Amino acid sequence: MISQSKYVVAAHPDKKEFIQVQWTFVSEIEGTLNLQLPIWRPGRYQVQNFAKNVLRVGRCQVVGGSGELNVESGKWSVLGKVSSSVWELEVNKGEKVHLIWDYYAQQEDAGGSVVQEEFLYLNFINFCMYVVGCEDLPVEVAIQKEPTWDVLTALEQKNSETWVAKSYRELVDSPWMSAPKLNRFEWNVGDVEFVAGGLDPQFALNHKLKEAYQKFSAFQLEYMGNFPVKKYIFMHWICPKPYYHGVEHTKSTMLVLGPPDRDLYEDLIGVASHELFHVWNVCTIRPLELLPYSYEKEVYFQTGGIVEGITTYLGDWFLYASGVWTKEEYEVALEANKKLYLEKEAGNAQSLVQSSIDLWLDGYGPSLPGKRVSIYYKGAYVAMLLDQKIRAKFNDQKSIREIMIRMNEEFGGLKKGYTLQDFIRIAEEVYEGDLREWFEEWVF
């Protein structure tokens, strides 16, 4: 329906809390196009309605034959909406369309976008519209910034101001950050390049943290036997506010922690190990309902306990198994996670599956007393029990590792999506026995 899609993003010239977004494309049809802004982002299964941050969307004219947008002259018309996050546009076949809008970029977390005097952080899923059905077409994004500023992103760079993505999906899976100075550290595990960097003035990726990242990244690659990408970036924003938060992406993760006047080491290694394992467990081994992502609607799935629970359990275990943590340090973390479930949620009404479905309802905010269980903490507890059950039967010769390797072999690389029944089938094959009653007790 469209081609030659390109976005241009810049700090707003007049409104310091806004960015200005321009979008050009060529229409391949004649008629009506619906322009969709995502209502949620992968990694947080909650409607966020990013459209609430859009002032208005304008359709711009072109100045003579120059092809330049006539933004400042006021010669543009406001697009109408057909729903909260959809704008309607009449087009002619072969027409080059120019659109412009202002976006309020003050969501100071890993999944938001932020514009400040000396910092620009962009999650394109917040503000880049798309046409449903065209998510797999290539796109470009030009970002106007100070020419001397550093940049950190997994996107492929075309020139000093332009980055390219194989698809809209890749674009919105690739956060971008820039500042006058970003710290950066690189290492390799086999033929995989790793980068850790970002805005972190307090500790500037100290030696202890670098060593921990090297250890657990090498161990995770050995554990799974391969890595889905050739380069991976740990992006950091150590901010003034109290934070402990990360978002997974296929080729990168964004970690937001603060404030910088406290020791962030333990929090950083915990969230970084967790997010790295997500490269397998959800980014490339994905539930059927989430493959591909539908950004325009709620997507319900039963397997939140697999996506987040196994990742939470193994994320900590990797720190111990790789030598970052001692056995005593791991046991302290394990007991803390167990208590979060056993003391707060063990008697709650919902099962792991029910709370996974209800993520869209109350998974991240307040819930009724005694209702919800956490897909993170109960999920991690159940993953631990499953791991222990397999290890006990096979005298540690098998573990949950065999399940995840089998999942990667059958579903990895986004070959196809899996269901809860697929996971149970593979778990039973690894266990070499019937696990239906066990899953009924702990999952359903």
UniProtKB/TrEMBL annotation:
High-level lineage: Bacteria, Pseudomonadati, Bacteroidota, Cytophagia, Cytophagales
Domain Peptidase M61 catalytic: 268-381
Domain spans labelled Peptidase M61 N-terminal: 7-177
One family name in Pfam for this protein: Peptidase_M61_N
Organism listed in the record: Sandaracinomonas limnophila
Name of the protein in question: M61 family peptidase
Superkingdom of the source species: Bacteria
